[in-house]
Amino acid sequence: MRIYLDNAATTPLDKEVLEAMMPYMTEHFGNPSSIHTHGREVRNAIERSRKSIATLLNAAPAEIFFTSGGTEADNTAIQSGIRTLGIKHAITTPIEHHAVLHTLEALEKNKEINLHFVELNEKGVINMDHLEELVRTYPGSFVSIMHANNEVGNVNPIEQIGELCKAYHCTFHSDTVQTMGHFAHDLQKLKIDFIVGSAHKFHGPKGAGFLYLNSNNKIHPLIYGGSQERNMRGGTENVYGIIGMSKALEIAYSNLEKDKIYITGLKSRLIEKLKSKIEGITFNGDCLNLNQSLYTVLNASMPKHEINEMLLFNLDIKKISVSGGSACASGSDIGSHVLNFLKADPARGHVRFSFSKYNTVEEIDYVADVLEDLFNN
Ligand SMILES: Cc1ncc(COP(=O)(O)O)c(C=O)c1O
Hints:
By secondary structure, the chain is an alpha/beta fold. It has twelve helices and twelve strands. Strand 5 (142-144), helix 6 and strand 6 form a beta-alpha-beta unit. Helix 2 runs parallel beside helix 8 and helix 9 (256-277) packs parallel to helix 12 (361-375).
């Protein structure tokens, strides 16, 4: 058996989700845009999924638009939001996912916007005073700040940021890919214009995601084509992906607290074990702060040791799948922009452990023992 601790990259599909999807890969194959019965039954299933997702998030079904995943949802919010609303300034953080960062940088390069970065401290925590200064200086900006960072797990105070954006007439988008299905989003309370979801991060299928667009806004599509998604996204829907995504989110919401407690227990256990077994280990970002970080992510820097050169390879041989995210060591190795920003030492080995409900205490103990062996020899 292999141990999978790379759940921030993707999660295994829940069996119940697969069961819900199967009929839409077999007997219910109609095109949802067709007006005959084959099409209509599939259309109805898509609309049930939309309603289910909207209900869980306390939003209206008309505010949910299906996409091919988180990247497309982020791109739609940012590119179409900025262009349709005629926005000239954007504010973000330097440690956003590339789906956000590269999109904003492309708009800046194209001279469509001026891009401003909010200051972060050495753990990657936002300086809220600086954010306030930026929105005061550039009212009406497009603010894009992720809910939780996928590499180090920092959770940003999007409730507070939403209030600030509202006060300064800014449009607020948050990349919520890493918290969707792991955190209860209440869109009646949250002052936000766009959030996004990606099914494969919460035990749903790959290639299915959605954009929440607050009904106060109207934006042009990013992908033009047919009249699907109420003219907001051309292209035949990924029907079984959508069905699987809503099922996965239903399962996630019905077990949210239970899973959170269980997974937090695994994360705390690994922190304690690693601290006691590996001298000189440190942790990146704010991931030790259990109240202000994702319970699914732990990012560690190993002490200097020759094993670091081949650390992930050695872990793989020991049947452990984790993610690296190297800090920049040379001109050819671009490394992780997040770890580089946080000034993680390139001479050390960096490991992102990310957990799911399927991990066990035995797996955590095994991983800690393997690392102890590697670093104490
Ligand atoms: C924070 C964040 N945003 C966006 C994405 C992109 O999502 P997708 O894989 O659905 O395109 C990811 C996936 O790694 C992510 O972690």
